[in-house]
Amino acid sequence: MTKVLIVGGGIGGLTAAACLLKVGIDVEIYEQAPELSEVGAGIQMSANPTRVLYDLGLAEELDAVSVRPSAYRFVIYDSSDVLQEIQMGDTYVQRHGVPYYVLHRADFLDILERKVRVLNADVIHLNSMAEGFTESGDGVELRLSDGRTVTGDVLIGADGIKSVIRSQIVGETPAHYTGDVAWRVAVPMDGLPQNEEPHTVDIWVGPTRHAVSYPIRSGNLMNFVGVVEFDEWSEESWISKHPWEKLKNDFTGWHPKIQAIIDATDHDNCFRWALNDRTPIRNWSTRHVTLMGDAAHPTLPYMAQGAAMAIEDAAVLTRALQAADDIPAALDLYQRNRIDRSARVVNESSANRGLFHHDSPQALRAAFSERDISAERTAWLFSYDPLTVDLV
Ligand SMILES: Cc1cc2nc3c(=O)[nH]c(=O)nc-3n(C[C@H](O)[C@H](O)[C@H](O)COP(=O)(O)OP(=O)(O)OC[C@H]3O[C@@H](n4cnc5c(N)ncnc54)[C@H](O)[C@@H]3O)c2cc1C
After folding, report:
1. Is the CB of residue 31 below 6 angstroms from any atom belonging to ligand 1?
2. Distance, CA 154 to ligand 1 centroid (Å)?
3. What is the pLDDT of residues 244-283, one digit of tens each?
4. What residues form DSSP beta bridges with 223?
5. What is the distance in A from the centroid of ligand 1 to the CA of 298?
6. Are strands 140-144 and 200-206 parallel, antiparallel or unpaired?
7. 214 is a catalytic site residue
């Protein structure tokens, strides 16, 4: 039986494990951390990954902790005038067959971890940091930092943007700072004026920055991401704590709803992420080793599709391993079918920076008047079904 070693127990690694175990492929996950965890922030799941999650039987669990937004809106930063809207709710389900969800990352990771453990209780190995691998004619040996080695037929690097497996396959391709930082906070919904309103995903667009707000935890928390152009990133850490006053200052003059979220934020817990990316590559596999998710194609979060791509990868890789005659052919089939789509997401996400950041409401209106984002995303993004798309 084929044995797959997965490095990384994030959204990508866990989804891959669940997809593979579901079809009877043997899996072991090696995660460096002492427990599986995610940051205290939200995540959006559009129809393209949600099809995979439904196929794993997770509909009920997702519904129990998520919000199904009524609309996805692009709004002007100070007036909240709506520039464009993508219909969500029942309209989205009718169009795509599955809902659009927004949820807390920790809740999502719990759902995925539970699913993997139900399929096989013993496959998640914590405190297991990968150092590198050695490939032989018929398999691969993974080396862990504590001296252990494990062998398998396939190794998947699902170890995120700083992937050691990627470094060994493609060499050092340093991630570079994009010029944007992202504040991420989540605040209790009661107490916010938007508490009583229909649940929407709002992308607030404006001068040199944008923000994203949506409800999570069944509507009990409001998630906020504030992206700010910031030229001089000099700190070593990608994630660092900053004074609340900086966050407040970054969004001076923005709509009262944004002020309300910032005012409700815990002053001692304001974290900022440096947003890094890499130029898309076209070869991330060897004969027995491949990459997925952020290890393969990290993307700016400006389409909310990074984890979605990892989930699509998991489904397509599983299908390729079932369909091809041998492992090298399977990894080739998988990669061939993921390169263009993931690169398109990376490139269009980066391009959204130019769409979202304009100095005046007039310039924003002009930029958005040239686009029909709902039609665009329906046509190629949400309509993609990783479970049935032809693998060529
Ligand atoms: C502000 C922001 C908002 C976002 N919003 C969305 C969104 O709404 N929707 C969406 O789809 N995407 C979103 N994304 C992107 C998404 O978070 C990532 O694309 C996704 O988490 C990548 O998952 P992954 O499993 O590939 O990697 P990761 O989540 O980085 O997981 C990698 C795992 O590997 C482990 N690991 C690393 N190195 C080793 C090692 N050497 N040995 C063993 N284990 C190791 C890590 O501990 C970690 O558990 C957002 C990103 C940001 C920054």
Report:
1. yes
2. 21
3. 999 999 999 999 999 999 999 999 989 999 898 888 899 9
4. 186, 214
5. 9
6. unpaired
7. yes
**CA nearest ligand 1 atom 25, residue:** 12
Provide Rg for the chain, Cα atoms: 21
- Residue 106 CB less than 6 A away from ligand 1: no
Q: Tell me: the pLDDT tens digits for 130-177? A: 999 999 989 999 999 999 999 999 999 999 999 999 999 999 887 788
User: Ligand 1, residues 159, 161, 214, 352: which to mutate, most atoms within 8 A of Cβ?
Assistant: 159
Please give the Cα distance from 130 to 136 (Å, whole number): 18
366 lines ligand 1 (CB under 6 A): no
- In three-state form (DSSP H/G/I as H, E/B as E, the rest C), the secondary structure along 320-336 is HHHHCCCHHHHHHHHHH
CA of 47 to the centre of ligand 1 (A): 19
List C-alpha distances in Å: 194 to 189, 221, 270, 295, 337. 8, 11, 21, 37, 42
Rounded to an integer, what distance in angstroms lies between the CA atom of residue 332 and that of residue 326? 10
> Tokens for 79?
């007036």
> Could you report the per-residue pLDDT of 87-109, keeping only the tens digit for each?
999 999 999 999 999 999 999 99
Predicted structure pTM score: 0.97
Which two tokens mark 138? 């018929």
Which value, to the nearest 10 degrees, does the dihedral of the CA atoms of residues 274, 296, 290, 130 take? 0
Which residues, including other chains, have CB under 8 Å from residue 153's CB and lie 6 or more apart?
Answer: 2, 3, 4, 138, 139, 140, 288, 327
CB 182 less than 6 A from any atom of ligand 1: yes
For residue 181, what are the CA distances in angstroms to 111, 235, 244, 276, 314?
Answer: 29, 12, 15, 9, 29
DSSP line for 167-210: HHHH-----EEEEEEEEEEEEESTTSGGGGSPPEEEEEEETTEE
**Tokens coding 50:** 């949600």
Catalytic residue among 101, 214, 302, 334: 214
